[in-house]
Design brief:
The chain has helices at residues 3-12, 18-27, 66-77, 110-119, 146-170, 192-205, 234-243, 263-270, 296-307, 327-346, 350-358, 362-371, 377-388, 396-406, and strands at 30-33, 84-89, 122-126, 174-178, 183-184, 213-218, 229-230, 247-252, 276-280, 282-284, 286-290, 314-318. It has 14 helices and twelve strands.
Length: 412
């Protein structure tokens, strides 16, 4: 009997179907964000980041062209098993034209559709409300300057149309996310006005019926320069989505108070919404977007998704950008950790654990939860990687070292 067969038998002894777990993991697509590869710069040429966005570090080898970004992404996904998607921002249009951000069209993203088709991956999308001259006084969709507000409304409308183009061309739903940095540095005199303007803008943006688009709005606790008040708060967006059943509340794991955890919020969302869009990041003291680790909260997020039969409802996207380490390695580490967390959740005897809770057998529940932590999870993970044709251990990093030596180190 092989080590894997022994591990499988151990899990099966507590009622876990390992074959089913591996099958479900292989079919669950993770949406990997393109902006880790170039520090959220994009191809618009707008210069330094602004609007509450910051990528720290200066590790060599940053992608500066579409070709470099695609090459780096290819290297990353070659080391990741299972199904993948790529998430883009509006600023990643590939065109020789000089096009205003509110005038971008599907044709400016044809190169990305060709790329996705050739690799059999889907695309998710994000409107880009930062790093632009029309971000005035840290306000976009909630601005009391009608010219500014309308510019960003048009931008968001075009974003949805481009998302519909992706959905049609790739025959898969496209999550189209709206996050705005709007807020104030100090205590505002008027909170209601900005939020009423934001509601008006969202109503205008979502008025058009589009096929294949999963519309999402993303809250944030605060931003750099918007420490005192954020217009698009969690309460605002949850209320908005409750009043508009075609729009979903996307939860970013870095966008809450440090004492809050998204894992505790998932069951609340599932009680009222049939879709659960997520951006998985890792905050340290603030929304610092560190590379995702396989920590307790990541595992608990995955467990909440799996134990509530929400794998088909959860749209899992990653959102971190660390410029202090090898950017390609960051993709691989973060995505493999998300998959490890999902496998961990799939290998839990969830039905039995729930029965123990419902029968108030809390001592046995605690015992089993703790004993599960030392089961041979790593052996099952290695088998999954081997079955997917990707490295099952740290040997994948040697490919990154070689890639850095031959490709990344030669970039300016």
């Amino acid at each position: 009997m092989t080590v894997y067969e022994e591990a499988k038998k151990r899990y099966e002894s507590i009622g876990v179907d390992v074959d089913s777990a591996l099958s479900q993991l292989s079919e669950k697509a993770i949406s990997i964000h393109c902006w880790q590869g170039d520090d959220v710069t994009g191809f618009e040429g707008s210069g330094a980041l602004s609007g509450g966005i910051q990528a720290t570090g200066n590790y060599p080898g940053k992608a500066t062209t579409p070709e470099e970004l695609m090459m780096d992404f290819d290297k990353a996904i070659s080391l990741i098993g299972g199904k993948k998607r790529i998430a883009l921002h509006m600023t990643y249009a590939i065109t020789d034209e000089k096009v205003a951000r509110d005038e971008l069209e599907p044709r400016h993203f044809k190169a990305w559709v060709d790329y996705a088709k050739s690799r059999n991956i889907g695309i998710d999308f994000n409107a880009t409300f930062f790093s632009h001259p029309m971000l005035k006084d840290n306000l976009t969709l909630s601005s009391n300057d009608e010219e500014v507000r309308q510019f960003w409304v048009r931008h968001a409308i075009q974003s949805r149309r481009i998302a519909a183009y992706f959905a049609k061309e790739l025959n898969t739903e496209c999550v189209n996310d709206i996050w705005i940095p709007d807020g104030y540095k100090d205590i505002p005199a008027d909170r209601l006005g900005p939020r009423q303007r934001l509601k008006k803008s969202l109503d205008e943006i979502f008025a058009e019926e589009l096929e294949g688009v999963i519309d999402a709005v993303e809250c944030k606790l605060f931003g750099i320069g918007m420490e005192a008040f954020t217009v698009g708060s969690s309460e605002f967006y949850i209320a908005y989505c409750a009043s508009n059943p075609k729009v979903y509340n996307l939860m970013d794991t870095g966008h809450y108070h440090p004492t809050e955890v998204v894992s505790d919020k998932i069951s609340s969302m599932l009680s009222f919404f049939d879709k659960l869009p997520l951006h998985v990041s890792r905050p340290i003291r603030w929304d610092s977007d560190h590379v995702v680790r396989l920590d307790d909260e990541l595992k608990e997020i995955a467990c909440e998704i799996v134990r509530n039969d929400a794998l088909s409802k959860a749209y899992i996207g990653l959102d971190f950008f660390d410029a202090s380490i090898n950017r390609v390695a960051a993709w691989v580490i973060g995505t493999r950790n998300m998959q490890k967390a999902l496998l961990w959740a799939l290998l839990q005897p969830n039905k039995r654990l729930k029965q123990l809770q419902d029968s108030c057998e809390f001592t046995e529940l605690l015992m089993l939860q703790e004993e599960l932590k030392t089961l041979p999870f790593g052996t099952i993970w290695e088998h999954f990687c081997q079955s997917q044709g990707v490295p099952s251990d740290e040997s994948w990093f040697e490919e990154i070292r070689q890639y850095e030596k031959e490709v990344l180190s030669k970039r300016n």
